[in-house]
Amino acid sequence: MKKQIIIIGAGPAGLFTAIQGAGKNNKVIILEKNSEPGKKLLMSGSGQCNLTHSGEIEELLNHYGDAERFLLGPLYSFSNNDLLNFFRERGIEFITTGDGKIFPSSFQARDILDTLLKEASKQGVEIKYNTPVKDIGFIKEDNIFLVKSSENTYQADIVVLATGGNSYQTTGSTGDGYKLAAKFGHRIIEPKPALVSVNISNYQFRELAGISLDDVMISLWRNGNLIKRWQGDLLFTHKGLSGPGILNYSRYIEAGDIIKLRLVDIKNEAKLDKKLIDLIDKRGQRLFKNLIKELGLPERLGLKLMKLTEIPESKQSAQISRAERMKIGDLLYGLPLKVKERGSFMEAMVTAGGISLAEINPGTMESELRPGLFAVGELLDVDGDTGGYNLQFAFSSGYLAGKEINQRTN
């Protein structure tokens, strides 16, 4: 008799698991709550589908926060090159941008989804739409899962959770899989918005919205302790901060934290003060606002810092007192901004948190607590940086789960 495989979710992770897991000795059914598949995939890269990122696997591993060790299995088993070859063999070509992001040459996410659906159909995968899963049970005596939808109950030898996380909730990613996994004893790391901007308390830079800074040194402080330090590109918004330097590290940021921005490329405060003194000595007759621009700051940002330190725009450099120089030097070296909140799940590109990685086999994506139960994609406690890393994990985890299912049933 054929084994019945139930996959919950028709996103990229679920579809790829189905494609890899299909075989003549099993029947693969995907249960999808929406009326159509891959809603979030179609939104990726603003509809252009940043599928993955170029580079060696060792480099890719650095873009998943603290999940690097777990990802050794999935990414080495199915790499970025393997993913590109899968689609190339089916007629899709790719373009790599200067920063390493890889898109289909058509810049159409629909082409990626259509290829997946065509391959799933070719493999005999059945997709049932408008079928939200309400519950999963398990009959120990028969070693059978009971997957309950709103209208039916399906028996399954193997179940794959591919429901996505809790971000972009309009696409159907509403955290359904967390409750299903928890029924089997899985610990759920608190889901939080990730790849998201942050709002700042008492924000005084609203008029600077749209100004970006390259390669800023950013440090994160909590209760007076340094949590993390990194460099990245930064964007001022109407409510706070965004840009890759914030998005990629938002997984670490909490409400109440202090973000400090080093606005100048100078290694310590003493050298910065010396730089200011030298500029003042050489250009004392110039307006101080023009001198500030020589440090590489956008004019509007320099003027804002002067306003915060109560230095008049009409003041000449030679008239700057030591106290004024020290005040503005403090802001230049470590502008402190208190985090009010991270953006919501409605804004987040991905979810941080999810099923604990300690309870998932990284070589198969099978549950360590319930044999026959698998979990793939964003439902797990894995969140990558912006740039194609999250889709890469969706496909890599789907590949491993599908491969294991195929070997077990065929």
TrEMBL record:
The keyword Metal-binding is annotated on this UniProt entry: no
Span of the signal peptide: none
CC cofactor: FAD
Keyword Flavoprotein in annotation: yes
Annotated ranges, domain RsdA/BaiN/AoA(So)-like Rossmann fold-like: 4-403
SUPFAM superfamilies in UniProt: FAD/NAD(P)-binding domain, HI0933 insert domain-like
Matches recorded under InterPro entries: BaiN-like, BaiN-like_dom_sf, FAD/NAD-bd_sf, RsdA/BaiN/AoA(So)-like_dom, RsdA/BaiN/AoA(So)_Rossmann
Domain RsdA/BaiN/AoA(So)-like insert: 192-350
One Pfam family, short name: HI0933_like
Domain of life per record: Bacteria
Protein keywords: FAD, Flavoprotein
Protein name: NAD(P)/FAD-dependent oxidoreductase
Organism: Halonatronomonas betaini
Source taxonomy: Bacteria, Bacillati, Bacillota, Clostridia, Halanaerobiales
